[in-house]
Design a protein that fits this description.
Layout lengths: L11 H16 L24 E2 L5 H10 L9 E5 L2 E6 L8 E4 H7 L1 H8 L9 H9 L4 E6 L9 E7 L4 E3 L2 E6 L4 E10 L6 E10 L4 E9 L5 E10 L4 E8 L4 E10 L5 E8 L6 E10 L5 E10 L4 E10 L7 E10 L5 E10 L5 E10 L2 H8 L5 H17 L5 H18 L1
Parallel strand pairs: 1-7, 2-6, 5-8, 6-9, 7-10, 8-10, 9-11, 10-12, 11-13, 12-14, 13-15, 14-16, 15-17, 16-18, 17-19, 18-20, 19-21
Antiparallel strand pairs: 2-3, 4-5
Helix pairs in contact: 1-5, 3-4, 6-7, 7-8
């Protein structure tokens, strides 16, 4: 990995922060399997040797990416990146008064917000080295700012394409919903030519008092790719953030999600769906931090595993002193469609307050024989019956977004993967 290059147009503080991040990356050791945050997993699967930031795309690659970009039906605001370069921007449909900025624009007009929220490493789940590299190499970023009382009726779609076998992309998303506003964002990570690229992405969702954010992420990288996504949710008083991860691609995919409930009455919802097949591995790490009273959080992860695929879920609910009347749930369910598939679940609680209601649990099991029999008895062949059961298993999570068109686009991607297997 080569050192980042500086730009004379960037603010001094930003250049210094990138230089410090590069020094941190070089100083920090790579995670080892003995590290608790990497239990049942392996940081060796995120191999950076021989990799460099993705090069400038060719005109043909840009056209191919634009032709293949698809998401929610209908026209709406959209940004498309290829190898961390913005190649298409359409902001039609954004509410009046809202701002959607590139990194260069945000550094010029809203540097204070970036200093406060966007460009600092807060990784605390074992990926500090990768977070430092992300911040050091940052080029592609989207900053969405909604003023008070503004509501988005359609989500902003952000699509990141990667091309080049040894390429690494570093997408960064910062969403700030001010008081009584509602931001909606849909993000996609995709490979253009089946190359085994690497994704190091960082997302930060900040909802001020009574603000709302609805966010979904669809990861469809090529089969040999590797990916690490870090998401940080920050909820103010009476704020609400809903975040959904749909993990379909990459040979190895790791997702770290942290929700901080900083204000009384705040609520966070973290949902995830994955369909690992072959020898794919999905690694999921979560932290729900309750720092204020009367806040609630809900987590529901579902993994449908095939062949020799593996999944890891490690989740922790922490209730700080004084965070009384907390209401927190954490559930991970694994559907094993193969005798060789493996699912590891490690839920946990750390409670330091009184009058709380917290629960966690995990289940793993094969497809229900009665459900299979019911479908087969109605003339449905076994392959299709298994596909329908898996679809129904994950569809319940996707529906929690509460947007019919949005959910339909994600379910279409799920159907395509299941149909490709059949």
């Amino acid at each position: 990995m080569t050192a980042p290059t500086s730009a004379s147009s960037n603010p001094t503080w930003f250049e210094q922060r990138q230089q410090q991040a590069w020094q941190d990356y070089e100083r920090l050791p790579a995670p080892a399997q003995r590290d608790e945050h990497w239990r049942y997993s392996s940081a060796k699967k995120l191999d950076l040797s021989g990799r460099n930031p993705a090069p400038e795309p060719t005109a043909e690659q840009v056209q191919a990416a634009l032709a293949a970009s698809s998401g929610i039906e209908g026209e709406g605001p959209r940004l498309v990146f290829v190898n961390d370069r913005l190649v298409q921007q359409c902001l039609d449909g954004l509410p009046e008064g809202s701002l959607c900025l590139s990194l260069e624009q945000a550094l010029k007009s809203h540097a204070d917000l970036l200093q406060q929220h966007g460009w600092q490493s807060e990784a605390s789940m074992g990926s500090e080295k990768f977070a430092a590299l992300h911040l050091a190499q940052q080029r592609a970023a989207v900053v969405l700012l909604l003023p008070k009382g503004v509501e988005m009726t359609r989500p902003l779609e952000v699509i990141h394409w990667c091309v080049g076998r040894e390429s690494v992309i570093f997408p960064h998303l910062l969403v700030i919903a001010q008081a009584h506003s509602h931001a909606r964002v849909s993000e996609q990570f995709r490979s253009l030519q089946g190359d085994a690229a690497m994704l190091l992405a960082m997302t930060r969702l900040v909802a001020a008092d009574a603000g709302r954010i609805s966010y979904s992420c669809l990861q469809q990288l090529a089969g040999d790719a590797q990916g690490l996504q870090q998401a940080h949710l920050q909820c103010g008083r009476e704020a609400r953030i809903t975040a959904l991860q749909v993990q379909l691609g990459a040979q190895f995919s790791r997702c770290e999600m942290v929700s901080d409930l900083d204000g009384a009455g705040a609520r966070s919802e973290m949902f995830s769906v994955s369909l690992p097949m072959g020898t794919q591995m999905v690694d999921q790490r979560t932290l729900q931090r309750h720092r204020a009273p009367n806040a609630s959080s809900d987590l529901l992860f579902k993994n449908a595993l095939y062949d020799q695929a593996q999944s890891v879920f490690s989740g922790l609910i922490v209730v700080d002193e004084g965070a009384h009347a907390t209401d927190a749930y954490q559930t991970c369910r694994n559907l094993l469609a193969s005798d060789q598939a493996q699912a590891h679940s490690l839920p946990g609680l750390e409670i330091l307050a009184d009058q709380v209601k917290c629960s966690h649990g995990s289940t793993s099991g094969p497809m229900d024989a009665e459900e299979l029999f019911y479908l087969r008895a109605r003339g449905i062949d076994e392959a299709l019956a298994r596909q329908l059961i898996a679809r129904g298993f994950v569809a319940q999570v996707i529906s929690r977004l509460g947007d019919e068109a949005w959910s339909a686009a994600l379910l279409k991607a799920v159907d395509e993967k299941l149909e490709a297997r059949a």
